[in-house]
Design a protein that fits this description.
Shape: elongated
Pfam family, one: YicC-like_C
Mean pLDDT: 84
Number of strands: 6
GO molecular function: hydrolase activity; RNA endonuclease activity
Order of helices and strands: EEEHEEHHEHHHHH
Oligomer: single chain
Number of helices: 8
Family: Belongs to the YicC/YloC family.
Radius of gyration: 32 Å
Low-confidence stretches: none
InterPro entries: YicC-like_C (IPR013551), YicC-like_N (IPR013527), YicC/YloC-like (IPR005229)
Keywords: Endonuclease, Hydrolase, Nuclease
Number of domains: 3
Largest sheet: 4 strands, mixed
């Protein structure tokens, strides 16, 4: 089953007066990159958080937010007055520019990030376990979305490969006719410019064989068929992270298609080559989203 790198996960839990909300958004990326925003209480656990996310998600560009809210007065708090003043000046300036009522400014300021924070900067082991559990739930939710998206990616990629395979079969059908046309064209040119009676039949046959071997595309088509088969096998294997492998196989598919087009020397075959290239580009775009 394919997994996409795009998805969204959210989880929320409450214990007593403490609420924990975790939100994670994932986009495609070559490596694992995470923009992490969290309460200062979680700084000692940042490494554990990042390690857990990488272990579960493996690859992608992530935006993650972990909010811890105190809903009651069970824990002493401190007010960051300097930050509150900064918020106040910015909000007041914006309200004046937009000619908006300022209303209950104090209530607004108290809800802004890190204006009010717990007096102690240490989190108990029990509280950390609650955060970790909530984070795991959000990661599971995100992973489910990735699987759902992956099913659509797999169906689309399979269709692209099937389309390339169908075009390749058309090229196989046209190849013998192409060789006959090349032979007839060369014989006609020789008869026109040299004279049919002046042509050495044995020498002509040798030269034709040599020329046709240079234009032969049977090996390219065989390799292309093998690459297409291998691509399908990778789609069906149990490895969760296979986007890079699929991308490498698509490069090989593209190499054989390009070589076939350059050697074909036939308008009919070139049309099918163009169609294969079009399907290949669409497949490459989709593979960028595969884990």
């Amino acid at each position: 089953m394919l997994k996409s790198m795009t998805g969204f996960g959210r989880a929320e839990s409450t214990r007593g007066e403490t609420s924990i909300v975790v939100e994670i958004k994932s986009l495609n990326g070559k490596q694992f990159e995470v923009n992490l925003k969290f309460s200062p209480l979680l700084r000692p656990y940042e490494f554990d958080i990042r390690a857990l996310m990488q272990q579960t998600l493996q690859r992608g560009t992530l935006d993650a937010t972990i909010n811890i809210r105190q809903n009651g007065a069970t824990r002493p708090v401190v007010i960051n007055t300097d930050l509150a003043k900064f918020y106040y000046q910015s909000i007041t300036t914006l309200a004046n520019q937009l000619d908006l009522p300022q209303g209950d400014m104090l209530n607004v300021l108290m809800k802004l990030p890190e204006v009010v924070s717990p007096a102690t900067e240490q989190m108990s082991e029990e509280e950390w376990k609650d955060v970790e559990g909530t984070l795991r739930q959000a990661l599971t939710d995100l992973d489910t979305h990735r699987l759902d998206e992956g099913q659509m990616l797999e169906a689309d990629l399979m269709q692209r490969i099937e389309n390339i395979d169908a075009s390749m079969q058309k090229v196989r059908e046209l190849d013998p006719l192409r060789k006959d046309r090349i032979r007839q064209r060369l014989e006609g040119l020789l008869a026109e410019h040299v004279g049919k009676e002046n042509v050495d039949g044995n020498r002509l046959e040798q030269e034709l064989i040599f020329y046709l071997e240079k234009l032969d595309i049977s090996e390219e088509l065989s390799r292309l068929e093998n690459h297409l088969r291998y691509f399908k096998e990778i789609l069906k294997d149990g490895d969760a992270a296979k986007g890079k492998k699929l991308g490498f196989v698509l490069q090989e598919i593209g190499r054989e298609i390009n070589t076939t087009g350059s050697k074909a020397n036939d308008a009919g075959i070139q049309q099918w080559v163009v169609l294969m290239k079009d399907e290949l580009e669409k497949a490459k775009e989709q593979v960028l989203n595969v884990l």
